[in-house]
Amino acid sequence: MSRVHSARNRDEFKVILNALERNRGLKARWLAELTSLWALRISDLLAITTEQIDESFETGEFSIVETKTQKVKVITLTPHAIKLLNQIRLEYPHDQYLFESRHGGSRRPISRKTAWRWMCEVETDVIKWRRTNGRLGGVNLGTHSLRKSGSRLRQQAGVTLEELQQLLNHSKPETTINYLDNNEQDLVDTFVAGDRALFGD
What we know:
Radius of gyration: 18 Å
Strand order of the largest sheet: 1-2
């Protein structure tokens, strides 16, 4: 399976968010924003209940146990998160899950497969935007691209490797370094440099 990519910068991240909203509505955008903001794996985000959220408005934070690592993660409600959560609760006041499925009649979150499909649909938007802005290469997006994008953009904003390691609940800094690396994407620039070096274009 190919490694999924993060957004290269904040402008590209906005392209992803806008394409999700255009294709699948505000719910898809909200899912992407909170996954990136909270640096969560999609399965952990989808398991969050509205009861947890409602209680967190009183305390300013809530805790989850990560499915993959079984580590506790405390999530702080930032102003942007509070704004999004208020919008979600206003739009879906009776839902039991933060991102509840509208299909099948049973109360369950949307599936990971659905969220993955939403992300794959925006790849062409990102490629078009890159070409318009003089950037080449393809992109491989999935739900994990959101967690990676949130981390990469924090790094670009000056958050330290140690802080990112703690945010992501990684045991080793090497894991975080590898996680933030976009080698396949960054290598594209060497092909462009080849045009200039070999042919003067």
